[in-house]
Structures are given as C-alpha cells and as structure tokens.
C-alpha cells in the first residue's frame, strides 16, 4: 500500500477540521443527543473521495446517526465546499464510516476489570 502524499495529508486534515466544525455547529440535538467526533479522514490520491471516520457516543445511537449522515451527505458536502472552495478545485465525495475503536477500548476495559 502506498503512503499518503503530503498534499493528501494536508487536504485530509483540513476536511477533518472543517467537517468537525460543521457537525459541532449543528449541535448534539441534531443527532438525537449523540456526541459525534470526526476521528479521521483518508483521501484518495486524486482527491476525489474522502473516507470520513466518525465515532459516536453513546454507541447505541450509532446506526441511526450513520443513517442520518448518509441522508445529509450532499448538504454536508455542499457546506464543506463553501469552506474549502479557495483551496480545492473539486470537493471530494464523502463516504462516512463508523470508527468503533472507542467501543473496542471500552470492551478491553471491561475485560480487564473482570
């Protein structure tokens, strides 16, 4: 697997920062009281596709929030486009993935307590 270029890393960081601000601006109420964190972004070499990893707390609401994110995808992309229009010619397609590493940590924690 090829490593990411510096440009990919910079664009991914910018998208992560901007999406986090957009989502935070909507507030927890917009996502059924769930806390949403954009935990990472990976971008393809042609900068056309961004894989956005989000962690959701509590994890019980994850499925509903993921559904909502996919329904709001074009609106989020549009808002992102307004923010990055100066830096990027094309706004990448967004694909949301659930980052369940927090669940994993919680699970390990539970196992260690036994």
Architecture overview:
It is a single chain. This protein is an alpha+beta fold and 114 residues long. The chain has one domain: K homology (KH) domain (GMP Synthetase, Chain A, domain 3). 49% of the residues lie in helices and 21% in strands. The protein has four helices and three strands; from the N terminus they run αββααβα. The protein has helices at 6-26, 62-71, 73-84, 101-113; strands spanning 35-43, 49-57, 93-98. A three-stranded mixed beta sheet has the order 1-2-3. A hairpin with a 5-residue loop joins strand 1 and strand 2 (49-57). Helix 1 (6-26) packs across helix 3 (73-84). It is globular, with a radius of gyration of 15 Å. The N and C termini lie far apart (39 Å).
Observed structural traits:
114 residues
Helix share of residues?
Answer: 40-55%
Mean residue pLDDT: 91
Query: Which residue ranges are poorly predicted, with pLDDT under 50 across at least 5 consecutive positions?
Result: none
Radius of gyration: 15 Å
Give me the CATH architecture, please.
Answer: 2-Layer Sandwich
Strand fraction equals: 15-25%
């Amino acid at each position: 697997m090829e490593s990411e270029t510096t440009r990919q890393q910079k664009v991914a960081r910018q998208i992560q920062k901007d999406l986090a601000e957009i989502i935070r601006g909507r507030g927890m109420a917009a996502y059924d009281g769930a806390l949403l964190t954009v935990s990472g972004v990976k971008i393809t070499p042609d900068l056309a596709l961004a894989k956005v990893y989000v962690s959701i707390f509590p994890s019980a609401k994850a499925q509903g929030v993921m559904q909502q994110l996919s329904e709001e995808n074009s609106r989020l992309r549009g808002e992102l486009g307004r923010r990055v229009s100066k830096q990027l010619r094309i706004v990448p397609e967004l694909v949301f993935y659930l980052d369940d590493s927090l669940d994993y940590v919680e699970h390990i924690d539970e196992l260690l307590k036994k």
